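Hi everyone, sorry if this is the wrong subforum. Our group has a chain we'd like a structural model of before ordering constructs, and none of us has done structure prediction before. Sequence below.
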Amino acid sequence: MTAFVSQWHAWIKALHIVAVMAWMAGMLYLPRLYVYHAAAKPGTELSETLKVMERRLLRAIVNPAMIAAFISGGMLLTVQDWGRGWLYVKLALVVAMSVLHHLYATWRKDFEQDRNTRPPRFYRIANEIPTLLLIAIVFLAVIKPF
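Answer:
Right subforum, don't worry. Here is the predicted structure as tokens:
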């Protein structure tokens, strides 16, 4: 596997970047939809439309992009220097992003079943978390500070 990754490193890295960009686009947009959905009355046309949008975004873009990011990132890990501390911090932040992804998926199911109890403000705050994680992950990966 290491020889394959070394030979195709640039292509795998490019795929990883594209997958992460798609994953992050969805992670930033999905809670924004939740803000609008939390303000909509259950059963209304807007609520039903948002349910479809949320489901399609998660299933067609966010989930596949996360899987592609994990596969390509896992491949890149085979040629990483594991002696550097930044990598462990970055991986911990990726785990945090994955937990957030799971929370977003759980919240979508709550909306789908008209069981949301959180106000729009909650989702506005939740919308900022992936941005903060993304900033930290990118700076760690590019600067490799320790």
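For your construct planning: Helices lie at 2-7, 9-39, 45-77, 85-112, 120-126, 129-143. The chain has a mean pLDDT of 97.
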